[in-house]
Amino acid sequence: MRRIIIALVLLGAISVGAIWAGQLGLGPVVITREGEQKIILFLGEVRQVTTPGATLRLPFVENVETFDSRWLYLKAEALPIQTKDGELLQVDNYVIWRIGDDVKFKKSFPAGMATAYDRIDRIVRDDVREVIGRHTLTEVLKGEREAIMTDIASKTREKVAEYGIAIADIRINRTELPPGTEESVYARMKTERQRLARKNRAEGEERGRKIRAEAERDARVIVANAKRDAEILRGEGDAEATRIYAEAFSPDPEFYDFVRSLEAYRKTIGGGTTLVLSPDAEFFRFFDRIDGESRPGAP
Fold first, then answer.
1. Is 33 contained in some domain?
2. What tens digit of pLDDT does each residue of 155-194 get?
3. CATH number for the domain including 113?
4. How many CB atoms lie within 10 A of CB 39?
5. Same domain as 78, residue 57
6. What is the mean pLDDT of the chain?
7. Please, which residues bridge with residue 49 across strands?
8. CA–CA gap between residue 186 and residue 88 (Å, rounded)
9. Alpha-carbon span 37 to 68, nearest angstrom
10. Distance, CA of 148 to CA of 90 (rounded, Å)
């Protein structure tokens, strides 16, 4: 019984020692923590990529290398970049990345993480410079900033994939004008805005003149058409009135002549009216006649 207990104790001690040695990278047991990736190398060649947990290896024959599987942060130093319109900007950025393929990463960077950081930083700098150089100052600062960062991330992601690196995001932290150039840049921007304002005002005035000319032309056409229609209606009304008069007075032309003469008297002779005419003038023919006959004693 004592031998069994001793054997169990020895077995437990050996297991604990193996686990402890595995945590130190020694012994046959390889312990992979959460957020780690480990590669087991047999004579320099990759035999296995571990996952979180315990894995066996051949001590002294197989080597183990540990890599970080978490997302990592790389901040680049500010660098001067010239925009499409000739403005100089100080631009800095950061990269969120991680090791996506341990085998490719190990083959690409046998010297370790330092060379990987340098390679990523250089690639990102080149892409930032190339993409920003195709845009104007206004686009970089405001108009297309989001599209620019997306373009940079897409280009870098394709380039670093062959190294076993995955890119989550690339962001521009700061875009500033170099010291001493703010006033000249602001002056150019002000001049450009004034030029655009003058251009817009001139175009607006020209458009206004066209609109007013078209409105005046349409107004003249409308008034002319209205006058024409009025004259036509007035002529039709006069013709209809003449027809009605003719129909009404055609049975007795003398009575019609008499009524028309009375209307003429009413319209021409009023209070204080003085007419100098011959007494036998045609206009007064009904003044000296009764029932068509001359009054007694009429001249």
1. yes
2. 999 999 999 899 999 988 888 777 666 666 677 778 888 9
3. 3.30.479.30
4. 18
5. no
6. 78
7. 39
8. 13
9. 6
10. 16
